[in-house]
Amino acid sequence: MDENAKVKAENIKLRCVLEKHEAKFMRLEQRDKEKTNLIAKMDDDIKEIKQSSANASSSRTPTILFA
């Protein structure tokens, strides 16, 4: 096999590897976005729970009436 054919074969191999890595990277980016969205939703849920808890606590606090 001459040198030119070896270089072409190596280029083909490297392009294939590059495509696989690009696809893997894109999947990782997508998962990262999904996780970021889930974390934001969980943060919102936590805020709602804390607010509900605070509202429930304040409604249970006895009111002292002064005459």
Question: Can you describe what's shown?
Answer:
- By secondary structure, the protein is mainly α.
- It has one domain (1-60).
- The chain has one helix and no strands.
- The mean pLDDT is 91.
Question: Which terms would index this structure?
Answer:
67 residues; mainly alpha; 87% helix; 0% strand
Distance between the termini: 105 Å
What is the domain tally?
Answer: 1
Find the structural class using helix and strand composition: mainly alpha
Report on the biggest sheet.
none
Please trace the helix and strand order, writing H or E for each element.
Answer: H
The radius of gyration is 30 Å
Total DSSP helices? 1
Low-confidence stretches: none
Query: Which descriptor suits the 3D outline?
Result: rod-shaped
* Average residue pLDDT: 91
Query: Strand percentage, roughly?
Result: under 5%
Strand tally:
0
Keywords: Coiled coil
Précis, in short:
With 67 residues, the protein is an all-alpha fold. The chain has one domain (1-60).
List the helices and strands and how they pair.
Blueprint: H1 3-60
